[in-house]
TrEMBL record:
Biased composition (Polar residues): 15-30
Keyword set, alphabetical order: Activator, Coiled coil, Cytoplasm, DNA-binding, Nucleus, Phosphoprotein, Repressor, Transcription, Transcription regulation
Coiled-coil regions listed in the entry: 105-132
Region (Disordered): 1-65
Role this protein plays: Transcription regulator. Forms a sequence-specific DNA-binding protein complex with MAD1, MAD4, MNT, WBSCR14 and MLXIP which recognizes the core sequence 5'-CACGTG-3'. The TCFL4-MAD1, TCFL4-MAD4, TCFL4-WBSCR14 complexes are transcriptional repressors. Plays a role in transcriptional activation of glycolytic target genes. Involved in glucose-responsive gene regulation.
Subcellular location: Cytoplasm; Nucleus
Keyword Transcription regulation: yes
Bias-annotated ranges (Basic and acidic residues): 37-48, 56-65
Name of this protein: Max-like protein X
Organism of origin: Fregetta grallaria (White-bellied storm-petrel)
Residue ranges constituting the BHLH domain according to the UniProt record: 50-108
Major localization listed first in the record, in broad terms: cytoplasm
Gene Ontology BP terms: positive regulation of transcription by RNA polymerase II
Length: 219
């Protein structure tokens, strides 16, 4: 009986130990499952992170646009494509690209102004030619309507004599007034001679005097 009581006591102790162990095990949290759930939960991006990422994307987009702009300038500007011996085969810097672009734009402005002046000159020439054409057409028409009108006109010889007499008189005053010691003195004398001897009244008196001389010679 003593042995049976001892065995019963040992069995009770083991049963109580198993009960306590199972209770303790059930009360301890399952860390393996929690770690697994934590890693599977999606990462939530904060407002600060989203703002930083948006700023980075905008900055990269701006850099790409600037780079594309410089690449387009180098493709358009002819001087950027030429070999620059001062820098060799190195890539052109942004400062050089901008300077070459400014120089080329200034060159285009000068060329545009030059072409505009040439066009203006050509338009004036065309206008003068049109006026001459109309005048010659009128002269030809008048001659065709009156074929005998030119018989009593002054001859070319008389016209030349009038012109020669005018030029001789002007040259005499020119030779007496002009000094050729230096270019500066020559320029000053020429302007003074023009103002004094080429006035309308002076030229008129010269022409009248030449005509009187020719009239006495002809008649």
């Amino acid at each position: 009986p003593a042995l049976l009581m001892e065995n019963a006591r040992k069995g009770s102790v083991v049963s109580r130990a198993n009960s306590i162990g199972s209770t303790s095990a059930s009360s301890v949290p399952n860390t393996d499952d929690e770690d697994s759930d934590y890693h599977q939960e999606p990462y939530k991006e904060s407002y600060k992170d989203r703002r930083r990422r948006a700023h980075t994307q905008a900055e990269q987009k701006r850099r790409d646009a600037i780079k594309k702009g410089y690449d387009d300038l180098q493709a358009i500007i002819p001087t950027c494509e030429q070999q620059d011996f001062s820098i060799g085969s190195q890539k052109l810097s942004k400062a050089i690209v901008l300077q070459k672009t400014i120089d080329y734009i200034q060159f285009l402005h000068k060329e545009k102004k030059k072409q505009e002046e040439e066009v203006s000159t050509l338009r004036k020439d065309v206008m003068a030619l049109k006026i001459m054409k109309v005048n010659y057409e009128q002269i030809v028409k008048a001659h065709q309507d009156n074929p005998n009108e030119g018989k009593d006109q002054v001859s070319d010889e008389v016209k030349f004599n009038v012109f020669q007499g005018m030029m001789d008189s002007l040259f005499q005053s020119f030779n007496a007034s002009i000094s050729v010691t230096s270019f500066q003195e020559l320029s000053a004398c020429v302007f003074s001679w023009i103002e004094e001897h080429c006035k309308p009244q002076t030229l008129r008196d010269i022409v009248i005097g030449v005509l009187h001389q020719l009239k006495s010679q002809l008649y």
